[in-house]
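Protocol step 4 of 5: obtain the predicted structure for the target chain.
Materials: sequence only (see below). No template structures provided, no constraints applied. The aim of this step is simply to have a reference model before the mutagenesis design in step 5. Sequence pasted as it appears in the construct record:
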Amino acid sequence: MRMVCQRVLEAEVKVNDLCVGRIERGLLVFLGVGKGDTENDAQFMADKLVNLRIFSDEAGKMNRSIQDVGGAILLISQFTLYGDCRKGRRPGFDAAAEPALAERLYEKVIALIAEQGVPVEKGAFGEYMHITSINDGPVTFLLDSTKLF
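Step 4 output (structure tokens):
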């Protein structure tokens, strides 16, 4: 499982000009599910997101989590995080999970975040979406449940 995690002042996702998810201060997260990912990967990523200390404390150091600052998460499914661009000119997606597995694990991550008391909004799985955000920093991290990076 892979994530791109951005600290934001606000973020919104629309489908067909209709807002389906919106947050103020928090994290905009793009989630890709790979072949072989399991609920253990979902648990790891949910825990990592909720406890990652990437918000500034009073001294300006990244020392506070999303829970510490009372923020929210906007989670967007994005299979292109498993795009392989090493060969040719068109990305291959062989490493991405099949849609049924990807949707199940995407929803699992959302449920696990919510269980920890963090407000979570989401995009529309499998839909074409427009996402807008105001990045804070910018602060962006790449996360991988197999710890590749």
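Step 4 remarks: Helices lie at 39-51, 66-69, 99-115. The longest strand covers residues 130-144.
Proceed to step 5.
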